[in-house]
């Protein structure tokens, strides 16, 4: 009986060494979660239960429990590397079968799908067209578009200008954009048509004979867009006319084959103070065609494609999953887990909501294995193995002594 008891101890110590060895081997594996061998004592039972003098029969491996503590976040130079800081797993598609991972070392395959090194595709909630919301009722594989971003025609120009209160009428009349003496001040900016071609829009400001009154002339590529637009200010320098601060310019045909430009000039933030002309803001809402420059992920898991025109396009929001019993997940290799009956069904959500952590773009979660701790465990398991081996040796000597009795 002692031989079997000591043998169970040897097997338990060997299992402990195997678990420790596996942890040490994956100390540099991204998203790896270490395991712990858990043991239980063994007693021989009869139909009448255990006698008070029953001696145990050794130990066995009750479970190999995974440790899902947070690993260190390490920053990288790859924008497709994503780390989860907090709870949750990435949901991946393995040819249509859902698997789960903490390893965020992703890249794009030849079709633009975001995959891990094993080829499992990252799944996201798709964006709802025309809104900043996402369809959380369905999941799709994240795919990065390699095409160009469509341009947008300018529809409004917002100005933050100050016209000098002490200005006088220009020396020359009538107004001419080629005669600097026929206007007081000018400023310009670039606008875009529906094909993404750029045009120069210029605004000329001419002081009239009436107090606190100015004429604004708009030109695009040197061509007049309508006539004079009269604006006026109060005796405290704030805009009074037009009351809304907006001037709708006539449509302008750019001549590039694009649609006519229909631009609204917003002067609501303009003022008439002091003695100097200044421009604090001059913005328009159009942009040209853009080429993809990179991808980044927000803390809430929204994946954006960035383009050379300064625009960003949401590609989806990363779906995260958790389980009623994460210890019940089945390790499938390649840094992924599978759902089991013991784990329960996945609970899906997004980063930053509920019990889910935040995502970090350009970073990876390192293995949560503490190498020093594992080396100590290795020494302990080795000593346990040696002690059980010595127990077998001692029992062998006892048995030999009994055999030698004459």
Structural commentary:
With 406 residues, this protein is mostly beta strands. The protein has three domains: 2-69 and 368-403, no CATH class; 73-148 and 296-363, no CATH class; 156-284, Flagellar hook protein FlgE (Tick-borne Encephalitis virus Glycoprotein, domain 1, Sandwich). It has helices at 2-25, 371-403, and strands spanning 35-42, 58-66, 73-75, 82-85, 89-94, 97-101, 107-108, 114-115, 121-125, 140-141, 156-163, 185-192, 198-207, 213-220, 223-224, 229-233, 239-241, 246-248, 264-266, 271-272, 278-284, 292-297, 302-307, 312-318, 320-322, 330-333, 336-338, 347-349, 358-361, 363-365. The strands form eight sheets. Strands 5, 6, 9, 10, 22, 23, 24, 25 and 28 form a nine-stranded antiparallel beta sheet that branches. Strands 12, 13, 14, 15, 16 and 17 form a six-stranded antiparallel beta sheet that branches. Strands 11, 18, 19, 20 and 21 form a five-stranded mixed beta sheet that branches. Helix 1 packs antiparallel against helix 2 (371-403). The longest helix is centred in the C-terminal third of the chain and has 33 residues, at 371-403. It starts with a helix and ends with a helix.
SS strand fraction: 35-45%
Q: Let me know the number of strands.
A: 30
Low-confidence stretches: none
Kindly state the percentage of residues in helix: 10-25%
Rg, Cα atoms, Å: 37 Å
Largest sheet: 9 strands, antiparallel
Class derived from helix and strand content: mainly beta
Q: What is the count of helical runs?
A: 2
Measure the end-to-end span.
Answer: 23 Å
Structural domains: how many: 3
Mean pLDDT: 89
Shape: rod-shaped
């Amino acid at each position: 009986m002692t031989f079997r008891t000591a043998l169970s101890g040897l097997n338990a110590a060997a299992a402990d060494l195997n678990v420790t060895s596996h942890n040490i081997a994956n100390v540099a594996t991204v998203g790896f979660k270490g395991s712990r061998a858990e043991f239980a004592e063994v007693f021989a039972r009869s139909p009448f239960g255990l006698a008070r003098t029953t001696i145990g029969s050794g130990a066995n491996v009750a479970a190999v429990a995974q440790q899902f503590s947070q690993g260190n976040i390490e920053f990288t130079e790859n924008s497709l590397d994503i780390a989860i800081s907090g709870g949750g797993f990435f949901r991946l598609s393995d040819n249509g079968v859902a698997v789960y991972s903490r390893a965020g070392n992703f890249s794009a395959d030849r079709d633009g799908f975001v995959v891990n090194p094993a080829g499992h595709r990252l799944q996201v909630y798709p964006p709802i067209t025309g809104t900043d919301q996402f369809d959380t009722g369905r999941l799709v594989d994240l795919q990065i578009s390699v095409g160009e971003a469509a341009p947008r025609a300018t529809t409004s120009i917002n100005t933050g200008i100050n016209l000098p209160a002490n200005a006088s009428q220009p020396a020359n009349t009538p107004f001419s954009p080629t005669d600097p003496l026929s206007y007081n001040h000018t400023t310009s900016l670039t606008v875009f048509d529906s094909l993404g071609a750029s045009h120069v829009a210029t605004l000329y400001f001419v002081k009239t004979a009436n107090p606190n009154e100015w004429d604004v002339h708009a030109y695009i590529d040197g061509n007049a867009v309508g006539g004079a637009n009269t604006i006026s200010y109060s005796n405290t320098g704030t805009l009074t006319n037009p009351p809304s601060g907006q001037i709708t310019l006539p449509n302008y045909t750019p001549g590039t084959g694009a649609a006519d430009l229909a631009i609204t000039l917003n002067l609501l933030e303009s003022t008439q103070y002091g003695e100097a002309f200044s421009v604090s803001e001059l913005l328009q809402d159009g942009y040209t065609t853009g080429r993809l420059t990179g991808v980044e992920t927000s803390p809430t898991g929204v994946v954006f494609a960035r383009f050379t025109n300064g625009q960003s396009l949401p590609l989806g929001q990363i779906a995260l999953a958790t389980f009623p019993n994460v210890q019940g997940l089945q390790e499938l290799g390649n840094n992924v887990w599978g759902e089991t009956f013991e784990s329960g069904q996945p609970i899906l959500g997004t980063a930053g909501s509920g019990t889910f952590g935040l995502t970090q773009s350009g970073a990876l979660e390192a293995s949560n294995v503490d190498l020093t701790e594992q080396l100590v465990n290795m020494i302990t398991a080795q000593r346990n193995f040696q002690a059980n081996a010595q127990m077998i040796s001692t029992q062998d000597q006892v048995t030999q002594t009994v055999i030698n009795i004459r």
